[in-house]
């Protein structure tokens, strides 16, 4: 055992880690979801979830997460593509990553000032003759701030996929007479699909459970599952209901992971002909 | 295996050395021994100069921590961990904390300054004979509004919030009992209603207000009102006082149908390790000069009648901060309704929030 580097013994810490920090918490969440306020066993929380309010909330969470993901993708794909064309790729990448080092709450508070009636955006609007607009506490401002926060997480995987793409494949496609659009549609996009999928996972799933900015930017006009969990734990102190919502969130995550799961024959393998 | 053992021993040794170093550093900074007092208070809720004065007078070292909700505070005290000596919960939380036996009784022999407190604020339902709590501040829930932006409105009735002219203007506080309280009060019902039908009716009435609601937020409202980004908000009296101090166009009114009267109180949690020090602190805070200075800094209303004489008469005679006894009869203190009813309030509040689109 002493000299065998691949002995199963070396994996024990990882199994322990997974058991303690992945499996045990999930079991605890499921356990709590089956308790009522007085700690008795019940299915009432699940029944409650399927009443109007929570279903409506789930739908609206999905709708906003969908919007956030789509807009992030629309911004990120071209950006990632342009970065691969620049000379200082790493520099540009760092510039995009740096904002994600700043505390989320701090960035959100900054947006309260920017979107305010006396903020810079309204000042610009005024100088070009447009009357002041109510920007804060609207759907648009909420989606904008969320997209701003998630963009780095979408750009990185797409950039990696694009960067690994073998340029020879693109030249081949051109040589064989494909137009730019066809090359993109038939060669580039399919080969970078795995990057897009990872990006979608990294944005869609956290968007479902966004909270704080729903209050600070959307003024609680948008309520996500994350907000509801926060309320149940901190205000109502109904850990059972909070856990039930969390169980559904975990389920949704698994479904999304399955739908956007990686197939082994990805871009990286095909592109590694270098 | 040998190297594994060596690593483990090495790590344990390093930890031991670090722990020793930490304890030595604690001692040199005077943080050990009996004379520390750990205070757990709301944010922006004490004049920091007074803490220094207390340290100087008594030689007790104060550690000051803050919380932002009663529930979070109670959870932390229940879990133990930190030995808080003083905390300032609101009245309905005191009832809960009493039930869970989280509080130590107060020995009034050590607090002669209790005589300075107005008798109206002693021996209330939430803590008979003030066995566990001493009043710290009190206040009301009402409406703060911008008189320049909303001409002709005076919000003498809660129903004014439903006025169609306020479309997209009203800011509410993100708290179930305060918001449901608005519509309960407007219908002449009790703020402590436990009747599901009444709560349902109150929610239905609130949903009719939805088009008027601009946002449901927390403390951020202060800045919005001060900057003129918003014109009317549901808020607590002390927060309104902060806003009015910054912007003269703002004023505060408690609608005539009645409202909530609340108290924050000093208590000694059972986690306390310096019970004598805690009593000294409570007695110190009840000193008229100290209480006056603190009320001046914090902006909420003090229950200390001896302190009122030392304060700016303009503030003390201002009905917005110190409503007359008649008005106060119309104000009601929240009762602890129990977890299930609070859950129901929050479910109804959630339903209302979902209707704002």
UniProtKB/TrEMBL annotation, chain A:
Its main location: membrane. GO terms for biological process: transmembrane transport. The chain crosses the membrane at residues 12-34, 62-84, 91-115, 135-159, 199-218, 238-259. The keyword rRNA-binding does not apply. It is found in: Cell membrane. CDD domains: TM_PBP2 (cd06261). The keyword Cell membrane applies. Keywords: Cell membrane, Membrane, Transmembrane, Transmembrane helix, Transport. It is a multi-pass membrane protein. Residues 58-260 form the ABC transmembrane type-1 domain. It comes from the Bacteria. One of its GO terms (cellular component) is plasma membrane. Belongs to the binding-protein-dependent transport system permease family. CysTW subfamily. This is Spermidine/putrescine ABC transporter permease. It comes from Viridibacillus arvi. The lineage of its organism: Bacteria, Bacillati, Bacillota, Bacilli, Bacillales.
TrEMBL record, chain B:
It comes from Viridibacillus arvi. Signal peptide: none annotated. GO terms for cellular component: periplasmic space. The keyword Signal applies. It is found in: Periplasm. InterPro entries: SBP (IPR006059), Sperm_putr-bd (IPR001188). This is Spermidine/putrescine ABC transporter substrate-binding protein. Spermidine binds at residues 44, 92. GO terms for molecular function: polyamine binding. GO terms for biological process: polyamine transport. CDD domains: PBP2_PotD_PotF_like. The keyword Methyltransferase does not apply.
């Amino acid at each position: 055992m002493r000299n065998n580097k691949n002995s199963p013994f070396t994996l024990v810490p990882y199994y322990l880690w997974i058991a303690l920090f992945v499996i045990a918490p999930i079991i605890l969440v499921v356990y709590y979801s089956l308790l009522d306020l007085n700690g008795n066993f019940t299915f009432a929380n699940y029944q409650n979830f399927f009443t109007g309010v929570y279903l409506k909330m789930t739908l609206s969470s999905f709708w906003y997460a969908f919007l956030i993901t789509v807009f992030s993708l629309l911004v990120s794909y071209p950006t990632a593509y342009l970065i691969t064309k620049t000379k200082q790729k790493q520099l540009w990448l760092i510039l995009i990553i740096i904002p994600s080092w700043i505390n989320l709450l701090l960035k959100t508070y900054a947006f309260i000032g920017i979107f305010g009636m006396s903020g810079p955006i309204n000042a610009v609007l005024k100088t070009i003759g447009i009357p002041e607009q109510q920007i804060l506490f609207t759907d648009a401002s909420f989606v904008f701030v969320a997209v701003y926060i998630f963009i780095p997480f979408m750009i990185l995987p797409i950039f990696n996929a694009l960067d690994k793409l073998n340029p020879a494949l693109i030249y081949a496609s051109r040589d064989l007479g494909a137009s730019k659009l066809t090359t993109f549609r038939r060669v580039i996009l399919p080969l970078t699909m795995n990057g897009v999928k990872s990006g979608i996972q990294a944005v869609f799933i956290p968007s479902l459970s966004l909270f704080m900015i729903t209050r600070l930017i959307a003024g609680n006009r948008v309520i996500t599952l994350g907000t509801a969990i926060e309320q149940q734990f901190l205000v109502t102190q109904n850990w059972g209901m909070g856990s039930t919502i969390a169980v559904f969130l975990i389920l949704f995550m698994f479904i999304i992971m399955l739908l956007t799961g990686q197939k082994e024959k990805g871009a990286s393998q095909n592109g590694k002909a270098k | 295996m040998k190297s594994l053992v060596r690593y483990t021993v090495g790590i344990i040794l390093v930890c031991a050395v670090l722990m020793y170093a930490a304890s030595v550093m604690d001692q040199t900074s005077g943080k050990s021994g009996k004379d520390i007092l750990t205070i757990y208070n709301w944010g922006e809720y004490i004049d920091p100069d007074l803490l220094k004065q207390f340290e100087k007078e008594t030689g007790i070292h104060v550690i000051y921590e803050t919380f932002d909700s009663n529930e979070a505070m109670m959870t932390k005290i229940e879990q133990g961990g930190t030995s808080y000596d003083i905390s300032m919960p609101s009245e309905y939380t005191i009832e809960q904390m009493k039930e869970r036996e989280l509080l130590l009784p107060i020995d009034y022999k050590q607090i002669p300054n209790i005589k300075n407190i107005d008798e109206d604020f002693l021996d209330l339902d939430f803590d008979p004979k003030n066995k566990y709590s001493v009043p710290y501040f009190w206040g009301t829930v009402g409406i703060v509004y911008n008189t320049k932006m909303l001409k002709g409105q005076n919000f003498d009735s809660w129903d004014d919030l439903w006025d169609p002219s306020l479309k997209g203007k009203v800011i509410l506080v993100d708290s179930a009992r305060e918001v449901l309280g608005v519509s309960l009060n407007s219908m002449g019902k009790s703020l402590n209603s436990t009747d599901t039908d009444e709560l349902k009716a109150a929610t239905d009435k609130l949903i009719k207000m939805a088009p008027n609601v601009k946002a449901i937020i927390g403390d951020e409202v202060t800045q919005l009102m001060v900057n003129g980004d918003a014109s009317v908000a549901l808020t607590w009296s002390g927060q309104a006082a902060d806003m009015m101090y910054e912007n003269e166009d703002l004023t505060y009114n408690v609608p005539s149908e009645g409202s909530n009267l609340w108290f924050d109180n000093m208590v000694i949690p059972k986690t306390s390790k310096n019970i004598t020090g805690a009593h000294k602190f409570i007695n110190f805070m009840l000193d008229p000069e100290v209480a006056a200075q603190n009320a001046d800094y914090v902006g909420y209303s003090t229950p200390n009648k001896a302190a009122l004489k030392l304060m700016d008469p303009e503030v003390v005679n201002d009905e917005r901060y110190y409503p007359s006894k008649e008005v106060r009869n119309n104000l009601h203190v929240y009762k602890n309704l129990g977890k299930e009813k609070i859950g129901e309030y929050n479910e109804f509040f959630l339903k209302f929030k979902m209707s704002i689109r």
